[in-house]
Specification:
four-stranded antiparallel β-sheet, binds pyridoxal-5'-phosphate, Aspartate Aminotransferase, domain 1, Aspartate Aminotransferase, domain 2, 420 residues, 43% helix
Length: 420
């Protein structure tokens, strides 16, 4: 057998040294692939790289002392047995009660039975994919959209179609496309505030368009509110779930499933998020959680509850002030250093600016060049498109770099974009 033939058949033969793992994996595993930019992004750990790549909070802003006190108190007071014990899948009741008040302040009157605690909002996206998507069904997503949502949904082997908040595509068109792909449209997934990766916010009219379309298609809406608390300019716009309640009368009549997170405000490492939705959805999610991990860590939920009750607003005010200054620094630096023909979003909040280079530019090649010559990292935009388009886009995060580093990093990036 030639070397080439051996190489060709190696993937499908049992080698004698081990199992043919890919042959045993379920078909759903085929779509779980490491991204091609991972190797490049490993270079981020090097100290001389200025990174705008990670979409993560600045650890210097974590309320570490408050968490220290909360954890000590949970482990020493009357609650110490409960803190280390198994608990209910729905989540820690005092935290759910706190979230009832928080949701009410966002225009969402609900009860604790409408809330389930998750291990980060990422877990909610996985569960919702599992709950709604049979193989071949269609999920409507933004072009671009949050890569982690695509990764979560991919395991359920869906098709994707482009959700246009402009309301310019008919329900019949969406229905026909989904049927041609062998399934039904099941939900629209959207981040209404300061989306990852674009930083953009949907105006109220666009939110209403999404609800109109969902009504016509009779599908669910998954609202990803991971960044909602991080608004630096402008007035709050009601979440999709609040607008849905306005038209349907009560949360029980809504089709919107709201996914919230403490990751961007308090601490991502504790993995605490929540889902707020009509009871039939929550009941199913609770059964899924029982099967998947029984419940989110009790101690973490208790600590989040204490820190949120004692100072959620103060913590959010503190991080907003820092991120707003960094956002301003990044927008000013982009204006100074980017050449003609490059455009970018001007986010009212969140952590991201989305850059569009002229047609034909390649963000992945630019990253390789940028790391090599200028030691600046970012995420090429292509990974955020379900159809693999968007090669000429980049995501920049301003959350973790100081204003001086932002100025220096964007100056260097401008040189790479100019080509030398
Ligand atoms: C838009 C969006 N949704 C959800 C998540 C998941 O966050 P977590 O699971 O920490 O709540 C992230 C994380 O970056 C995100 O950017």
């Amino acid at each position: 057998m030639s070397t080439q033939m051996q190489a060709d058949t190696a993937g499908s033969m049992k080698s004698g040294h081990g199992l043919d793992w890919p042959g045993l994996f379920a078909t759903r595993a085929e779509r779980m692939k490491a991204s091609e930019i991972r190797e490049l992004l490993k270079l981020l750990d090097q100290p001389d790289v200025i990174s705008f790549a990670g979409g993560i909070p600045d650890p210097a802003l974590f309320p570490a002392e408050a968490f220290g006190a909360a954890l000590t108190s949970a482990l020493t007071g009357d609650t110490k047995g409960a803190a280390l014990q198994y608990s209910v899948s729905e989540g820690y009741k005092p935290l759910r009660d706190w979230l009832v008040a928080r949701m009410a302040s966002l225009g969402v009157p609900c009860s604790a039975d409408n809330i389930m605690i998750t291990s980060g909002s990422q877990q909610a996206l996985d569960y919702l994919g599992k709950l709604f998507l049979s193989k071949g069904d269609t999920a409507l997503v933004g072009w671009p959209t949050y890569l982690g949502a695509l990764q979560a949904f991919n395991a359920y082997e869906p098709n994707y179609d482009r959700l246009t908040p402009l309301g310019n595509r008919s329900a019949d068109d969406y229905r026909a496309t989904a049927a041609a792909n062998g399934g039904q449209v099941k939900f629209a997934y959207a981040s209404a505030d300061f989306a990852n990766p674009t930083g953009e916010t949907l105006p109220e009219s666009a939110r209403k368009n999404i609800l109109d379309l969902a009504e016509e298609l009779d599908i669910a809406v998954i609202e990803d509110a991971a960044y909602q608390s991080l608004r630096y300019d402008g007035d709050e716009i009601p979440p999709l779930l609040a607008l849905d309640i306005e038209r349907s009368g009560s949360i029980e009549a809504t089709r919107t499933i709201y996914c919230g997170s403490f990751s961007k405000t308090l601490a991502p490492g504790l993995r605490v998020g929540w889902v707020c939705a009509a009871k039939p959805v929550i009941s199913k999610l609770v059964l899924m959680k029982q099967a998947a991990d029984l419940h989110s860590a009790t101690l973490n939920q208790m600590a989040i509850h204490t820190v949120a009750s004692d100072g959620f607003e103060a913590q959010v005010a503190k991080i907003k002030a820092t991120y707003q200054a960094r956002r301003d620094a990044m927008l000013a630096a982009l204006s100074r250093h980017m050449p003609e023909g490059v455009t970018w979003t001007k986010p009212d909040g969140g952590m991201f600016v989305w850059v569009t280079l002229p047609e034909g530019a390649d963000g992945a090649a630019l990253l390789a060049e940028s790391l090599k010559t200028e030691r600046v990292a970012f995420v090429p935009g292509k990974a955020f498109f379900a159809d693999g388009s968007g090669a000429n886009t980049l995501r920049l995060s301003f959350s973790c770099a100081s204003e001086a580093m932002i100025e220096e990093g964007i100056k260097r990036l401008g040189r790479v974009v100019r080509g030398g």
